[in-house]
């Protein structure tokens, strides 16, 4: 480890590792630090990724694929369900191997990597970030650098030290719990989403097959609905109903902002990527692919900024524009869809599922599905302006 | 004054047997008063505003206001 780097990346999840690799490939000296002693552990995720958005960042490798998904099912607690064709091939992966491989690629590109190393504060001069204080294997260091990339996840403190407001409203914060269950029978090619106000208020539950007789079975609820009954207890009820004889091979808890990305993702000498920047999908809270894309965009803007010798927030804000141009409208639409679903009662949601089940879904885009469902359920016209806008946006 | 003192005496307590160290509470703490160090969670009593967001949303209900 050197005392000076061009860039320090805090957090070796998928976003941090991609950012570190891209910058190292550009010829910059990069340090990637991870507070855990091992990369990829503990897994705090349902572990689903898309084939197409993953390919730019890592060769698809059976060593980290647990299941290949060709169908999604949306279910309610009354037993109705509709099969929805996925937007593309999806994998349920082993994040321990996947994250490790991404960090390994950063290592091969020339980035320096240290685990069991956490950031403890930023060093700033006249507002510009000029370094980061770290604790590595119990020893303290002050590392000088021109850019810090905060990839420190949902609990990011680096971004806050840089003066960015990252605290989400409770209504837009998902809290979740997940078991890796064994000894269960699941369709190994199908991911299930379960929706219902009693099941997972303001959120949803999922069953993502992990190969053989195992699956990630978890749920998220709105933080606003977590005071009386915990996410863990909601999941225990769900598991008792669907998989009463399952073994618990793992358990994870977590929280994830579903706000859409932060408006301010840069400061002078600082960029924020991945969950730390709230880049997860505002409907599903899926964030692996989005975090890698966000990190890629941040690296593109950072490379230009290094080339120009200007690491000011102004110069780095190119990154925010890249993100907005690609995801701004789409994520606002997904946010609205979540709000609409969360406001529906179970009876209406059941009708929607039964209507959708009659449609030739394999030939329709999500927007067309929404509009067709709307024709059958005019009461939704109360929500229609948002819904139609949302549908049109998605159809594009 | 008496009321304020009473409020200030109440504090957020973490049950380390229940906590998964997931960091959800760190993310939603407005004054940034919660610190997570792999397998230890601590709360800065001086900056905590007792808003109880963390207590209400903890995925495993490992946090509580005491007494």
Quick rundown:
Chain A has 396 residues and is of the alpha/beta class. Chain A has 11 helices and 18 strands. In chain B, strand 2 and strand 3 form a beta hairpin.
Q: Which CATH first-tier class of the largest domain in chain A would you pick?
A: Alpha Beta
**Number of self-contained structural domains of chain A:** 3
Kindly report the name of the CATH homologous superfamily of the largest domain in chain A. Answer: FAD/NAD(P)-binding domain
Termini separation of chain B (Å)?
Answer: 19 Å
Helical residue percent band of chain B: 25-40%
Distance between the termini of chain A: 48 Å
SS-based class of chain A: alpha/beta
Query: SSE order of chain B in H/E notation?
Result: HEHEEHE
CATH topology of the largest domain in chain A: FAD/NAD(P)-binding domain
- From N to C, what is the helix and strand string of chain A? EHEEHEEEEHEEEEHEEEEHEEEHHHHHH
CATH class of chain B: Alpha Beta
User: Which regions of chain A are unreliable across 5 or more consecutive residues at pLDDT < 50?
Assistant: none
- What radius of gyration of chain A results from the CA coordinates? 21 Å
The biggest sheet of chain A amounts to: 8 strands, mixed
């Amino acid at each position: 480890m050197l005392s000076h780097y061009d860039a320090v990346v805090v957090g070796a999840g998928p976003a941090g590792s991609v950012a570190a690799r891209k910058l190292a490939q550009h010829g910059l000296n990069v340090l990637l630090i991870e507070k855990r002693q091992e990369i990829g552990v503990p897994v705090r995720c349902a572990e689903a990724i898309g084939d197409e958005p993953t390919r730019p960042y890592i060769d698809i490798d059976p060593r980290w694929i647990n299941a290949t998904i060709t169908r999604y099912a949306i279910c309610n607690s009354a037993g109705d369900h509709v099969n929805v064709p996925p937007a593309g091939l999806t994998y349920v992966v082993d994040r321990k191997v996947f994250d490790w491989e991404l960090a390994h690629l950063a290592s091969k590109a020339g980035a320096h990597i240290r685990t069991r190393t956490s950031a403890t504060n930023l060093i700033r001069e006249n507002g510009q970030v000029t370094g980061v204080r770290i604790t590595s294997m119990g020893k303290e260091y002050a590392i000088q650098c021109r850019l810090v990339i905060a990839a420190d996840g949902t609990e990011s403190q680096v971004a806050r030290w840089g003066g960015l407001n990252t605290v989400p409203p409770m209504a837009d914060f998902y809290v979740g719990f997940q078991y890796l269950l064994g000894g269960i029978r699941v369709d190994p090619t199908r991911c299930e989403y379960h929706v219902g106000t009693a099941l997972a208020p303001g959120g949803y539950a999922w069953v993502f097959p992990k190969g053989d007789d195992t699956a990630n079975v978890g749920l998220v609820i709105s933080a606003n609905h977590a005071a009386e009954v915990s996410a863990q207890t909601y999941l225990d009820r769900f598991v008792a109903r669907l998989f009463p004889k399952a073994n618990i091979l793992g358990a994870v808890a977590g929280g994830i902002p579903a706000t859409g990305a932060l408006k301010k993702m840069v400061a002078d000498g600082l960029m924020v990527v991945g969950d730390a920047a709230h880049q997860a999908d505002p409907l599903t809270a899926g964030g692996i692919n989005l975090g890698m894309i966000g990190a890629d965009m941040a690296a593109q803007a950072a490379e230009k900024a290094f080339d120009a010798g200007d690491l000011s927030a102004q110069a780095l804000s190119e990154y925010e524009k890249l993100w907005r141009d690609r995801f701004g409208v789409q994520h606002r639409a997904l946010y609205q869809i979540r709000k609409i679903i969360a406001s529906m009662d179970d009876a209406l949601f059941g009708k929607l599922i039964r209507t959708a089940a009659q449609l030739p879904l394999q030939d329709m885009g999500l927007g067309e599905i929404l509009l067709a469902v709307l024709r059958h359920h005019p009461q939704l016209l109360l929500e229609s302006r948002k819904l139609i806008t949302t549908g049109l946006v998605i159809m594009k | 004054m008496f009321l304020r003192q009473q409020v200030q005496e109440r504090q957020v307590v973490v049950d380390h047997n229940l906590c998964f160290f997931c960091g959800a509470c760190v993310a939603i703490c407005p004054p940034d008063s919660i610190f997570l160090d792999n397998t230890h969670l601590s709360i800065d009593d001086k900056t905590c505003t007792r808003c109880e967001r963390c207590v209400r949303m903890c995925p495993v209900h490992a946090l509580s206001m005491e007494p």
